[in-house]
Amino acid sequence: LCKRGLVERCRNEEDRRYVRVSLTPAGQQLIHDYFPEHVKIVLEEIGVLSPAEQEDLQHLCKKLGLGKVG
Question: Which of 10, 38, 51, 55 is the most exposed place for a label (fewest CB within 10 A)?
């Protein structure tokens, strides 16, 4: 991704083990351009689930999101 110019790495001067990775403007544009197609695909995939299964999936995704680091 760095070679493609989509992200840039910035090493922390105080702790050289820490590297911050962020999107470049080109990376942000790629996300912006692709996101609508991604949403369409996800909605098609979720469409095979019953309403109850979709609700279960929503609950599980929220639960997993609560456990994220940072």
Answer: 51
